[in-house]
Amino acid sequence: MSLFDTNLLTLARQLVPVELQTPVLAAWITAIGDELEALRAAFLQRRAADEVELQMTGQVCKLKALLNDTFDPIQRRIYIEDDNPAEPLWIRRRAEAQPVFIYTRAEAGRRQNMGRCSPSLCPPL
User: Fold this and answer.
1) Could you report the per-residue pLDDT of 35-44, keeping only the tens digit for each?
2) Which residues fall within 8 angstroms of residue 93, CB to CB, at 6 or more apart?
3) In 1-125, which residue ranges form alpha helices assigned H by DSSP?
4) Which of 61, 57, 96 lies closest to 76 in space, CA to CA?
5) Which helix (H) or strand (E) holds 53?
6) Beta bridge partners of 90
7) Using a CB cutoff of 8 Å and minimum separation of 24, what contacts does 84-89 make?
């Protein structure tokens, strides 16, 4: 549940004291509540767009602009997404049904130091 997941119309009706609740006031609150809901929807749309924009660094923005200027200057459809670096790359040997993990240089150094990685599978440092 987010801070912005509130029903403003229901909240406004509940905040009116019982003595002041009349049909005219309820209609007035509904009219104002509809406008507030429209503003809230526009705010949430803008907030989602801003969150995406804040995740980009200056390097990503410049690279995206450079690629769009070079390869798609009119429609500017090139965008950059983050890859999921947590997923390892697995390959399988044909002779064996067991997977072989491809290590990065940093991981290979740690594996060789721990004695768990054979030199044939780990790249040289």
Assistant:
1) 888 998 899 8
2) 100
3) 8-15, 23-54, 58-71, 105-114
4) 61
5) helix 23-54
6) 101
7) none
